[in-house]
Design goal:
With 263 residues, the chain is mostly helical. The chain contains nine helices and no strands. Helix 5 packs across helix 9.
Length: 263
C-alpha cells in the first residue's frame, strides 16, 4: 500500500483534524462516518474504495472503544439486549465487509436516505423519545429484537457504515425504550464489535493503510473522550438535540451525493 502514500503530510494533517471532529460527534450520537469517510475519499482519491473503508474502520475502532469505556464506567448498560446484539453484529459485520469488496456499497444510498428520513420524522414526532429510561421488552421478544438489530446493523456497518451509530441509538431508544444516554452506551458497544469484525476482514484482505489509520486514531480517540464526557455530563436532552442535527446532516449528505450522481 506504500504506493498510495507519496508526500502525504498535508493530507494527513487534514485527515487528523477530520478524525478529531468525527470522534467527538460519533461518541455522542454516531454519524462520525459522515465526516471521516468523505474526508478520506476526497483527500486520497487514488486509493481503492475498499482500502479507504478499511482504513476508516481501523481509525474508528479506537475512538469508539474509548467512548464505550467512558460509558461503561458511568452509565448502567442493559446487557440482556446489548450482548445478543453484539454477538450477531460481529458475524454479520464480517459478512458485510466481505460483500463490500465485491459489490459497490454506494448502491445503498437511496435506501439509507429513506431510512434516515423516517428516523428523523419519528424522532421529531415523538418528542419524549429517549427522554426517559423505560425498557419495554423482556424475555424472548427482547432477545429476538436484539438479534435482529445486531444482524441488520452489523451487516450494514461492515458493508457501508455511515449513520450506523445513529441507527443503533434510534433502535435502542425507539424499539427497546432506552433513554438516549443508555441507548448511546449500548450503541457504542455494538459499534465496537462491528468495527472489530470489519477491521479483521479488511486487514486480512490487505485493505488498510495502517500508518494513516493509526495517526488518525490518536485524534479520533481524543475527540471521542471529550464527546463521551459531555454526553454523560449533559444527559439525554443534549444527546437528542445533537442527534437530530447529525441525522439532518446525514440526510443532506446523502441527498447531495444522489444529485451529483454518486449513488
Amino acid at each position: 500500500m506504500l504506493e498510495y502514500l507519496p508526500d502525504l503530510t498535508p493530507q494527513l494533517l487534514a485527515l487528523c483534524a477530520f478524525a478529531l471532529l468525527a470522534g467527538f460527534i460519533d461518541s455522542v450520537v454516531g454519524g462520525g462516518g459522515l465526516i471521516q469517510v468523505p474526508a478520506l475519499f476526497v483527500l486520497m482519491p487514488g486509493v481503492p474504495p475498499a482500502t479507504l473503508l478499511g482504513t476508516n474502520k481501523l481509525c474508528s475502532i479506537w475512538g469508539t472503544s474509548a467512548a464505550a469505556w467512558q460509558y461503561l464506567r458511568r452509565v448502567p448498560v442493559e446487557w440482556r439486549a446489548t450482548l445478543p446484539a453484539c454477538a450477531l453484529a460481529f458475524a454479520c459485520s464480517l459478512l458485510g465487509a466481505r460483500t463490500a469488496t465485491l459489490i459497490p456499497p454506494g448502491q445503498l444510498r437511496p435506501l439509507v436516505l429513506v431510512l434516515l428520513l423516517a428516523v428523523l420524522a419519528h424522532t421529531l414526532w415523538k418528542k419524549d423519545l429517549g427522554s426517559l429510561h423505560a425498557p419495554r421488552l423482556a424475555g424472548r421478544p427482547e432477545l429476538a429484537a436484539a438479534l435482529s438489530l445486531g444482524g441488520i446493523i452489523g451487516f450494514y456497518d461492515g458493508f457501508f457504515g455511515p449513520g450506523t451509530g445513529s441507527f443503533l441509538i434510534f433502535a435502542f431508544a425507539g424499539l427497546f425504550g432506552f433513554s438516549f444516554l443508555a441507548a448511546s452506551a449500548s450503541a457504542k458497544l455494538v459499534n465496537v464489535v462491528t468495527n472489530a469484525a470489519a477491521v479483521l476482514w479488511f486487514g486480512s484482505a490487505g485493505h488498510i493503510l495502517y500508518g494513516v489509520a493509526l495517526c488518525m486514531a490518536v485524534f479520533n480517540v481524543a475527540g471521542a473522550l471529550v464527546g463521551a464526557r459531555m454526553a454523560i455530563r449533559h444527559g439525554s436532552g443534549f444527546i437528542r438535540t445533537l442527534y437530530i442535527a447529525v441525522v439532518g446532516l446525514l440526510i443532506l449528505k446523502f441527498c447531495a451525493d444522489l444529485l451529483q450522481g454518486r449513488g
